[in-house]
Amino acid sequence: MASALWYARVAALGNVVGALAVTRRAARELALIEHFVAFGAGFMLAVAIVELLPEAFVRSGAAAPGFVLAGYLAVHLTQHTLTPHFHFGEETHAVNRLAGPSALIGLLLHTFFDGVAIASAFLVRPTLGMLVFVAIFLHKLPEGVTIASLYLAVGRSGRQAVGAAALLGVATLLGVVVTNRLGFLVWHGLALAAGVTIYVAASNLVPEFQGKRGWRLPAAFFAGALLFFLTRLALNRVS
Ligand SMILES: [Zn+2]
Ligand SMILES: [Zn+2]
Questions:
Q1: What's the whole-model pTM score?
Q2: Lowest CB count within 10 Å: 41, 68, 144, 180, which one?
Q3: Dmax of the chain from CA atoms?
């Protein structure tokens, strides 16, 4: 519990750092964070399919497929159905004034499950917890960039933009705390989080770069998946 919460704090801080890169107009950092999207997508997808899915089937048994699907659909419902506008990355076009707060509400469920994923992975074993932490952390910076640039695009202040990103971080911490106290999530949190993680990686992050030209972003994507296997190898050696 203690270590899951510690890692979740670092992940939550990623949201705030991403937002600060936007409000301070750190162009070089933002270009770097764009590659985090592709790299993080590869790492996340590998963790979700290779690690989370099999463990979810062990913990939830026959109920696992239903929970995985429910997690996937829940993100689509809150981020893209009930909310008028959401996508990862910087805001580059005109948006409705309410787009900022409504996207924040939609993202809160997803970031809550970022915390559920970290906590339930640590409940299985510490090395899985660390792998999931890396996967979550890699997309926390782009997540902060996303909400902060949307807030600025709809005319909110830099302080409000960073505050919105901080709220996303708080939801992640809450996900850890609730998972450790709620029997239902202790057992089925991993299956739900697997569905959420697959959505974020394959349906949020991949579409952000699949249309872009050049070899750098695809290379970062494949490198992310490769690094998962190398990280897992290294973690298994030391544990
Ligand atoms: Zn937009
Ligand atoms: Zn997230």
A1: 0.91
A2: 180
A3: 51
Cα–Cα distance for residue pair 29/64, rounded to 1 Å? 39
Tens-place pLDDT, residues 143-196: 999 999 999 988 899 999 999 999 999 999 999 999 989 888 888 999 999 999
Q: What is the pLDDT of residue 1?
A: 53
The ligand minimizing its distance to the Cα of 109 is 2
Task: Please report which ligand is nearest the Cα atom of 41.
Answer: 2
Going from the Cα of 172 to the center of ligand 2, the distance in angstroms, rounded, reads: 8
Average pLDDT for the chain = 91
Six token digits for residue 230? 């190398």
For ligand 2, the distance from its centroid to the CA atom of residue 168, given in whole angstroms, is: 8
188, 59 Cβ separation under 8 angstroms: yes
Distance CA 195, CA 9 (A): 23
